[in-house]
Records
---
Amino acid sequence: MAMAKRLYVGNLKYTATSAQLQELFEQFGAVSSVQVMSDRETGRSRGFGFVEMVNDHEAQTAIEGLDGRDHDGRRLTVNEARPRSADRGYAAGRGVGDGGGGGGYRRGGGGYGGNY
């Protein structure tokens, strides 16, 4: 039995819902899960999501049928999602714990050292 395939779907309208995305992909086969990513603070869609399809062949057919296609006035990007990795997000490529920044508070003024 083929394993489920996770697809990345980009350039969605900010009003897109998981239900709409599921309906779009069900034209190509069985969908096991759908997630439209949303902003933590506003709750608004971030314009991309993930669809997990039960069958690899159906997933490939969906990629071929939807990638580059106009949907709600936007040209979709659909491809196989890259595997999640440990160095995603904020600290990606920075070497976690490298200190970083300081936001401009490190120079002069304040503190207990020296110049009074």
---
Amino acid sequence: MTRLKAGFIALLLGGAIGCAVSEPGGVSGSAGTGSPGSAGTTGQAGTSGNAGTTGQAGSAATAGTTGQAGTMGQAGTTGQAGTTGAAGTAGAAGTTGTAGRGGSGGSGGSTAGRGGSGGATAGTTGSGGSGGTGSTTVPSPSAGCGKSGRPSGGKVEVSGQSLHYFPTNYDGTKPFPLLIALHACGNPNTEFVSLTTGNGLDTTYVRTFPNTPDSGQCWSSYTGDVARILQQYDDIMANYCIDKNRIFATAHSSGAQMLVNILAHKTDAQHLNLKGVAPVAADPYNVAVPMPVMYIDGKMDNQRSADSAKNTVARFRTANMCADTSKPFTAVPMCNSTDGSRPAVDAGCIIYDNCTVPTIWCSHNDPSYSGTQHGVPCFAMKAMSDFFAGL
């Protein structure tokens, strides 16, 4: 009996010990790997790990924790469009960066799946549009806009004082740019009438040709001459339709000296609000305001001192904060002189580097003006027209 009880107890203890040993839990889930993704979509979350299977009579395996979601790929930034110059091509937009794909879920186990890797880098910025030619200045109508139509014959003249010409399509409502042209010593104020005809200036600009009553028709009295020029300018603005943002000036010899002298007087220069100038054969004055310039002079001009052109250009370079360096300005083509046997003329133009405004010097070899190289060369008026149109 005693043996029977001892055997029964042993049997019960063996069963209890066997039931206390649990089966192994589920294996750890492997980490989810994130691959760089294509389009900037949100990474897919890792799937939950499978729970470990329960051993016989064992305690339940701990369930695998949820895999962390892949981080959202950063979208590529859109490239900035190129600014459009007139006739310029727009810059291509930047490509969009690709986003990271979410990590795959861990299989069962206690270790969580690893999140997907981050998205690809942002898209590259689009390149800018190439610059076009032509002005983008917004017109500023003068007080005279809408007062009257085109004057009879397209011409208004006060003998010995002023002369204005109007394009055939001028109607008094659309503002036109204004071109002021100052004649050379000993020349009437009609000198530039023919020079500005047939090259686009006559069809694009209202043209005004002031006159000086000074001895020999030379601009020799600054105070009186500038007062007349400013008064005529004010009269045009008050009575005709002019774009106040597009006032230009050219001049020759004594007239060119007068024009550069006006630029040396800041108040007078600001009154005219010039957008650009193209003096021919002037002399140096201390230019008081930054001014886009195409300066033209003969390389061997015998009516000016040897350093006149160089020193005049130096004053413009100072006002326009140019570097000492320059490069050829090839936009001005060669031409044939109107003088003598009509030799080929090299415009000899350069443009200075790093200026705040365009600064061009054309040192030519046109023998015009009776072989003096002091005249208005064959390329000048077309070059001026193109230069003004580009400002």
